[in-house]
Write a structure and sequence with these properties.
Radius of gyration: 16 Å
Structural class: mainly beta
CATH topology: Thrombin, subunit H
Number of helices: 1
Order of helices and strands: EEEEEEEEEEEEEEEH
Shape: globular
CATH superfamily: Trypsin-like serine proteases
Strand content: 25-35%
Strand order of the largest sheet: 2-10-7-13-14-15-12-11
Helix content: under 10%
Largest sheet: 8 strands, antiparallel
Number of strands: 15
Number of domains: 1
Length: about 220
């Protein structure tokens, strides 16, 4: 049904706005079929008529996908050089009536004053925690299965992560993985992970304008 090429699951944007006006029609939800039912597990963005860009930790559990040794959803592995948190999903046919998102060129974010710019995250995932957290066996959450978005800011202080990641304010949650971080309509990063089991802290985004990402896209897209 599809072909995966990987270079690291999805729930919607915390306190986000439901995309009822199709502001981001090229951001979709990824699903897997099990026991005759379909389940959401990540988000992704259409970047060509038949290609979806997502996070590698969303795809490396597929048998035979050729993914890196990311350890399933162990995102820490993707902080290591050479293990990049991005993947391409090749569809069996073009998506009609949806314009693919433009992907940032090399060094796109380097030309911006990150602290003065507004960015927007989009994805399908957990909307809110009522009680408990992702580690709680009986947590009560809100998940409507709809695409959501939210404006965010970049955090530059006390950031010791590799340069190919950028840290943003509270927003994305489990299930938003692989979804897009946009700047003025251009896809600049992928939702990679949240620092909080209640999605109440900052989040880490994988920069598609980084050298490793650009090399991967040049070779496969």
């Amino acid at each position: 049904m599809l072909l995966l090429i990987t270079s690291a699951p999805a729930m919607a944007v915390i306190d986000g706005t439901t995309d009822t006006t199709s502001r981001f029609p090229n951001v979709g939800g990824l699903q897997v079929r099990s026991g005759g039912e379909w389940f959401d597990f990540c988000s992704g963005t259409l970047v060509a008529p038949d290609v979806v860009l997502t996070a590698a930790h969303c795809t490396d559990f597929f048998a035979g996908a050729g993914g890196p040794p990311g350890g399933g959803n162990s995102k820490m592995s993707f902080l290591k050089d050479g293990l990049e948190d991005m993947a391409l999903v090749f569809l069996t046919k073009d998506v009609a009536n949806v314009t693919p998102a433009p992907v940032a060129d090399a060094g796109y974010l380097d030309g911006l004053d990150l602290t003065s710019e507004t960015f927007t995250v989009a994805g399908y995932g957990t909307d809110k925690f009522i009680t408990g957290s992702a580690a709680s066996p009986k947590a009560i959450t809100v998940y409507d299965g709809a695409r959501s978005y939210r404006d965010v800011s970049v955090i530059t202080e006390h950031d010791l992560f590799p340069d190919r990641f950028v840290k943003i304010t509270k927003s994305v949650c489990f299930g938003d993985s692989g979804g897009a971080l946009f700047h003025e309509g251009t896809l600049v990063a992928l939702n990679s992970w949240t620092f909080s089991l209640r999605c109440a802290g900052p989040n880490l985004e994988y920069r598609v304008d980084s050298a490793p990402a650009q090399s991967f896209l040049d070779a496969n897209l």
